[in-house]
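Meet our chain:
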Amino acid sequence: MTARIGVVTFPGSLDDRDTQRAIRLAGAEPVALWHKDKDLKQVDAVVLCGGFSYGDYLRAGAIARFSPVMEPLIEQARAGLPVLGICNGFQILTEAHLLPGAMLGNDHLHFICREQKLRVENADTAWTADYTAGQEIHIPLKNMDGRYVADRYTLDKLEAEGRVAFRYLDGNPNGSLNDIAGITNEAGNVVGLMPHPEHAVEPLIGTGRTDGLPFFTSILKKLVTA
């Protein structure tokens, strides 16, 4: 049976359709989830996509974190449901305390949109298994509040436990501490990153490469072999 991966749409989401297409290209079935849904429609995994949920009022992701759909998502993520947060989705995951730290405004105070070089630091999560540790990839980046911050204890813990999933190369685009582009929880089922892998799944669009597709093939293989 085909794996079913939910994609949550909040008011202000931008990349839900792109994410659904990436899931379809990987061979899974995308399932649309609305922010007011009170159940996850028995999906096997969930992606919180990019955008500006609720206009980024208060803080990016701060209002979306209290949407009805987040109650079952938080509960099931803590029980092992694979969840990927992309850009605004990453911000929502930190606000929901499914991932540690917080996202602040870029240190240069400008929106940034460019191709970004990354290094894969952890290839053992549900969403990164089709990469190899140390692999360098190119993924589109677009954000205003992309600066990852955490206290020194949390940063040291992430580094010591190998929970930095991706790191910026060739220049830090937003002032993120330790050049962190993405992290994972302790179990490896929840991953968040600021760059947009869904925009790098076909040669015709994005970077002209398919460096983002392994996010979606990784989770498909994980679900098939589970």
Remarks:
- The longest strand covers residues 112-120.
- The CA atoms of residues 51 and 105 lie 15 Å apart.
